[in-house]
Design a protein that fits this description.
With about 230 residues, the chain is mainly alpha-helical. The protein folds into three domains: about 80 residues, Ribonuclease H-like superfamily/Ribonuclease H (Nucleotidyltransferase, domain 5, 2-Layer Sandwich), CATH 3.30.420.10; about 40 residues; about 100 residues, no CATH class. It is built from twelve helices and four strands. The strands form two sheets. A two-stranded parallel ribbon has the order 1-2. A two-stranded antiparallel sheet has the order 3-4. Strand 3 and strand 4 form a beta hairpin. Helix 1 runs parallel beside helix 3 and helix 7 packs across helix 11. The longest helix has 21 residues. The protein is rod-shaped and about 95 Å long.
Length: about 230
């Protein structure tokens, strides 16, 4: 494409009609696109100078002067003047995205926070997860549970009067106070797979949304260990 553009620029300086023949069909087709700077410059010259005509010839056939042209091209690659060819925007966008994801992945791999989420999403991606605010609270543990409230001094204990430490996983799998929202408790060796499955299935995410909303609405009841909760999601 660069050679074709240089040929068009040279022909534009000639005070006569010029026929430019190329065996690169892809370069000739690329001139139909206006998305790349190098083709834009060539197109503007062709629009302003009707004496320049382009044509295609089949490669590797016996055409007069074609062998001589190929020899000149090979010599130019060895002794010619270096040319600066700008990158296409699509290439730069893709390259910058890859660099950004690579940098973010290294930060994510070596980070000290967010390890609970890292076990669920170890690989950085620019694809949307479609997690609601409630699902994010559930995955990070930053939601309405006694363990979270105690961490910030909003409750005196994180102990459930029924079954030990009361966190969001406890509510969704074991707590007898909220049976309507229960998921089957996973075996220890499948805990990571369970998290990924629950947060990737739409009905499960909806159930988690309802659970977190209910817990946030009934925070005073949660703090009371002697109060029996019974609720069925709408």
């Amino acid at each position: 494409m660069l050679a074709l553009k240089v040929g068009i620029e040279w022909a534009n300086t000639a005070n006569e009609e010029v026929n430019i023949w190329s065996d690169s069909e892809s370069s000739l087709q690329a001139l139909k696109s206006f998305n790349v700077k190098i083709t834009q410059e060539a197109q503007l010259i062709l629009l302003e100078n009707a004496r320049i005509r382009l044509g295609w010839v089949k490669a590797h056939i016996d055409i007069k002067c074609k062998d001589f042209t190929d020899t000149l091209v090979k010599e130019a690659t060895m002794d010619g003047i270096p040319a600066s060819l700008p990158f296409a925007k699509c290439f730069l966008k893709k390259h910058l995205l890859e660099l950004s994801l690579s940098y973010s992945q290294a930060e994510w791999d070596n980070g000290e926070t967010g390890r609970s989420v890292y076990s669920i999403i170890p690989k950085i991606s620019n694809k949307e997860l479609h997690w609601s605010r409630e699902c994010i609270q559930f995955a990070t543990g930053h939601g309405p549970s006694l363990s979270y409230l105690k961490r910030f001094g909003l409750h005196s204990t994180d102990y459930c009067g029924y079954e030990g430490i009361e966190n969001l996983l406890h509510y969704v799998t074991r707590c007898p106070l909220i049976l309507s929202y229960h998921h089957k408790e996973p075996s220890p060796q499948f805990i990571v797979h369970w998290w990924k499955s629950v947060l990737s299935i739409k009905p499960s995410r909806r159930n988690i949304d309802n659970l977190i909303t209910f817990l946030a609405t009934n925070e005073d009841l949660i703090k009371s260990q002697n109060t029996t909760l019974s609720h069925t999601p709408v």
